[in-house]
């Protein structure tokens, strides 16, 4: 779940982003759209407790994250948030399996090869466990990064521009995989994108509590204060 109220973020230069309130129930999907510079990355960083809001309340996976700082924020993020970045950040020197193991070490967990293989298998890439990232296609690398993102069973999965530079067919596959993966884990999914195709690839927003929601940011929410 992600609940926000009166959320704002102020950059050191003095400009402040103001975000619309959201009420995203656990297991629902939020399409976060808006043009470049409208604040999508900032919103994701707030939800992941990478930065602290200048004002407002923000609850993510049952945690009031606005007050989290430093090591407490890191520990909470490692367990609660799965992140699929636009640049996948797979370590080129490590095999696929080692890349996933690194996520376990980083979260202070023991290496668990069985969980790694389960995660890779669910995304159809278990046979690639011994390869280096440089030996993967773009689509395979994205599946590996998605397996890493859900390895620790996060309650919230954040995907940043997951269809950037993909053709139509690959974009549809990427969105389908994200929806299926989040649903399998019961995770709340946020897809942040300025790719208009994504809006066509997910079901329309409904007016119920569970399901699909859309949040469109506009540049005007950036104000000089
Ligand atoms: N470090 C910073 N200092 C000052 N302003 C910043 C900083 N980072 C981002 N901004 C501004 O905040 C606004 C939102 O930026 P943000 O990166 O969140 O937008 P975005 O929607 O993710 O853009 P894109 O799609 O291009 O990644 C922009 O106007 C940007 O110029």
TrEMBL record:
Domain (ABC transporter) ranges: 2-225
Gene3D superfamilies, sorted: P-loop containing nucleotide triphosphate hydrolases (3.40.50.300)
UniProt KW ATP-binding keyword: yes
Keyword field contains Protein biosynthesis: no
GO molecular function, one term: ATP binding
Superkingdom, taxonomy of origin: Bacteria
UniProt KW keywords: ATP-binding, Cell membrane, Membrane, Nucleotide-binding
Pfam family name, one: ABC_tran
UniProt name for this protein: ATP-binding cassette domain-containing protein
Species assigned in the record: Rhodoferax mekongensis
Source species taxonomy: Bacteria, Pseudomonadati, Pseudomonadota, Betaproteobacteria, Burkholderiales
């Amino acid at each position: 779940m992600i609940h926000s109220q009166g959320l704002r973020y102020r950059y050191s230069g003095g400009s402040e982003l103001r975000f619309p309130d959201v009420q995203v129930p656990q297991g629902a999907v939020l399409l976060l759209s808006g043009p470049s510079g409208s604040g999508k990355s900032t919103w994701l960083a707030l939800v992941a407790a990478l930065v602290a809001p200048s004002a407002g309340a923000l609850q993510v996976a049952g945690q009031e994250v606005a007050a989290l700082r430093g090591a407490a924020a890191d520990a909470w993020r490692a367990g609660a948030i799965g992140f699929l970045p636009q640049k996948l950040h797979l370590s080129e020197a490590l095999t696929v399996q080692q890349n996933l193991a690194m996520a376990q070490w980083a979260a202070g967990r023991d290496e668990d090869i069985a969980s790694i293989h389960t995660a890779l298998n669910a995304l159809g890439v278990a046979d690639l466990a011994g390869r280096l990232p440089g030996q993967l296609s773009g689509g395979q690398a994205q599946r590996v990064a998605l397996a890493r993102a859900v390895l620790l069973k996060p309650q919230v999965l954040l995907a940043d521009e997951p269809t950037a530079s993909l053709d139509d067919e690959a974009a549809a596959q990427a969105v389908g995989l994200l929806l299926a993966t989040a649903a399998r884990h019961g995770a709340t999914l946020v897809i942040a994108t300025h790719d208009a195709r994504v809006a066509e690839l997910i079901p329309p927003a409904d007016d119920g509590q569970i399901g699909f929601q859309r949040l469109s940011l506009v540049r005007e929410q950036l104000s000089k204060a």
